[in-house]
Amino acid sequence: MRSIIIGGGVTGLSAAYEFVQAGVQPTLIEAQPFLGGVVQTETVEGCVLEGGPDSFLSAKPAANDLIRELGLGDQLIGSNDHSRITYLLRNGRLVPLPDGLLMMVPTKILPLAVSPLLSWSTKIRMGLELFRRPPSTPLPDRTVAEFIESHYGRETVDYLAEPLLSGVYGGSVDRLSVQSVLTRFVDLETKYGSLTRGVLAAKKQARRPAHPAPLFQTLKGGLAQLTHELERRIRPTAEIITGRAEFIHRTDSGYAVRVNGETLTARHLVMATPAWQAGQLLRPVHAKLAELLEGIDYSSSVTLALGYRRDQCGPIPPGFGFLIPARERQTLVACTFVGAKFPYRVPETHHVLRCFLGGAGDEKVLDLSDAEILTAVRAELKKLLGWDADPSFVRIRRWRRAMAQYSVGHTARIATVRAILHHLPGLQLAGNAYDGIGVPDCIRTGRASARTLSQQ
Ligand SMILES: Cc1cc2nc3c(=O)[nH]c(=O)nc-3n(C[C@H](O)[C@H](O)[C@H](O)COP(=O)(O)OP(=O)(O)OC[C@H]3O[C@@H](n4cnc5c(N)ncnc54)[C@H](O)[C@@H]3O)c2cc1C
In this model, does residue 210 exceed pLDDT 80? Predict the structure, then answer.
């Protein structure tokens, strides 16, 4: 009887790898003719372009550990943190994020005081937040906007929380759950009342490593180096089926999966698709579970890589790129200066801009044609960077319902999902919908699901 994984993105590949390590021969079902899911790297004119994720947070060890285990440790590269400046658009101008901000929590007075990003009334409010007392009883889950507004005021929501989280989740701060998305800040609020006091206390307690890890890491040849290596490792052992799983039902000894007109039976089943797709497939297995999974929102976005020959365009400001708050937004949400953020990405001859569009509330951009998207983005870049060179290449990708949104109540929803799974032995859910949306979270949950099942 088989161990089946549905979904061949980084989550499913990590699960398959873990099964193989445990001596199990897994069957991996993937609808697309290629593995890797949203991890899609290509090289154009010597530039390494990421269509989906471009890196991962090094603070979460699962990706780093797996990469080393696969023998790719010498391929790891870190972000150029010494030159990390991020700009935000305010009143039509790109303004650098002041030094000393931990997301939206200020920890240094002077850089914030002299920054034109926020008004004086918000700066004073940020200072007074230091005197906030811990809540007398635990507070319920709230939206990120409600939470940040209660600490630092609405302007901090509009000009820090919203653009910073749009870049990560493509989500709306008016819906995202603070409990799920800013868990650490909620803990600091419970303990200290003031987030600023909490962050400063945590900083004091933490030992500064002699060589701090870079904030983001990736691989020299792009993240597909990881998914390709996983594929290479599993191919000799795993059965890989290209086809869309269409139907799942329970059997006496496990699950039956219909794919390519055939029914495969399995003792173990890992659902490594986005939650809404897992929900659709699992409806005949457990209607309530399906409803909970389908109720997890996903946002859609567009990524656009624009490559320029340096001798044909103007200079790029120093730093990693810029974010556009929704209040100032037209089409662009964010833009990364790829060659500045990472080494080994862009040769001296080129500049590459990686632009993000769409996300919650802005998803109509997915219906525009490539030409319409390009025209809108070029017009905005002309205003922001002052140049309108013809790109020497353009790559546009649309990501429909690809990024999970942890809305208010997400933690409680996932607790119910886990309670239901307890009664469905042999079934595991993994991926970005449950407790972390990044690549390391997907690797961690993918591997854990296979480990749990192979020990059953
Ligand atoms: C544009 C974008 C940028 C991102 N940037 C970052 C970043 O910089 N850093 C970071 O850490 N994270 C980032 N993320 C998030 C991270 O990339 C994802 O959470 C992660 O890659 C998801 O992997 P997955 O395998 O769970 O899902 P996916 O990659 O979506 O793979 C799921 C697979 O399941 C398959 N599938 C679905 N239904 C079926 C079916 N019925 N039968 C068979 N197969 C099926 C799909 O074809 C797909 O290949 C980004 C995500 C996106 C979309």
Answer: no
